[in-house]
Every structure is written in structure tokens, then in C-alpha cells.
Write a structure and sequence with these properties.
This protein is of the alpha/beta class. It has a five-stranded parallel beta sheet, with helices on both faces. The protein has five helices and five strands, in the order βαβαβαβααβ. β2, α2 and β3 form a beta-alpha-beta unit. The chain has a single domain, classed as Rossmann fold.
């Protein structure tokens, strides 16, 4: 069984990771802990445009941040006796996590829910909702204890 876990450095994805860690899984289950590194288009003022070196610094810092995030998640699962690996994928989380699920033949995607509603959901979007609607496999959306 292949399980993809999407992390985003929030308490909601922490809850999803903790749910996975304490759930019994079939022997041989493989866990892929992933984080989507979305590089937002920069808005420039007429006065200042960052140069290539600054853009490279931003990409390096983002890559390091997401790499540490997924490495920590994989380490937590490994300490619980699970077989885990980590991945950083670049792009919009709603799409790149689905692409990774297809590429890795995931049987299950696990994500946390931010529980946004109304205008916040319209503005921020919902990664969990998009994944549920478009995933090539089953999806488990874990709510944090505060949302229950």
C-alpha cells in the first residue's frame, strides 16, 4: 500500500501526520511525506525589481524549509516503525500532490483540513476539497482536535 501525506507546516497537517503515526497499517505500507513548494508570482513596484540572485536565494530558502518539513515528518513516522520517505514538489499543492499520487500509484492521500468556510475558503481555496474531488485514489481528510 502506498500512502501520500501532504504537509504544509500547519497544526492541521501536524494532526494528519499524528493520525497516520498512530494508526495501524498493513505490513509493507510505504509512506511518502510531501510538501508543495509554491513560488508565488512577485508583485513589483515601479522602483525596485529583485535581481536573479535574490530570486535564487528565495528558491533556496523555500527548498530548504520544505525539505526540513518533510524530513521531520518522515523521521516521525520512521521513529514509529513505519517505512517513510520525503519529497518536495514544486507548484500549486492542489495539482502537484495529485500528480505525485498518480506517479507513485498512491492508494490513499492523507491531508489536514484548515476548516475554512465562506469568504476565507473562496479567497484561500481549499487544497483538501480539490484533492477529494480530483484524486485518483481514496482521500482521508484529518481534522485537528480544535475543529471537532
Amino acid at each position: 500500500m502506498n500512502v501520500l501525506i501532504g504537509l504544509d507546516a500547519s497544526r492541521f497537517s501536524d494532526a494528519a501526520l499524528e493520525y497516520v503515526r498512530r494508526t495501524p497499517w498493513p505490513a509493507g505500507t510505504r509512506f511518502i511525506v510531501a510538501s508543495a513548494m509554491s513560488v508565488m508570482p512577485m508583485v513589483y513596484a515601479d522602483v525596485y525589481v529583485p535581481g536573479p540572485a535574490e530570486t535564487e536565494d528565495l528558491l533556496r530558502d523555500l527548498t530548504q524549509f520544505h525539505g526540513e518539513l518533510v524530513a521531520k515528518g518522515a523521521r516521525i513516522l520512521k521513529e514509529g516503525g513505519l517505512r517513510a520517505e520525503s519529497r518536495v514538489v514544486r507548484g500549486d499543492a492542489r495539482e502537484v500532490l495529485l500528480d505525485l499520487a498518480r506517479d507513485e500509484h498512491a492508494d490513499l492521500i492523507v491531508v489536514g483540513s484548515h476548516g475554512r468556510t465562506g469568504l476565507n475558503r473562496m479567497v484561500m481555496g481549499s487544497v483538501a476539497s480539490h484533492i477529494v474531488a480530483h484524486a485518483p485514489c481514496s482521500v482521508l481528510v484529518v481534522r485537528s482536535p480544535a475543529e471537532r
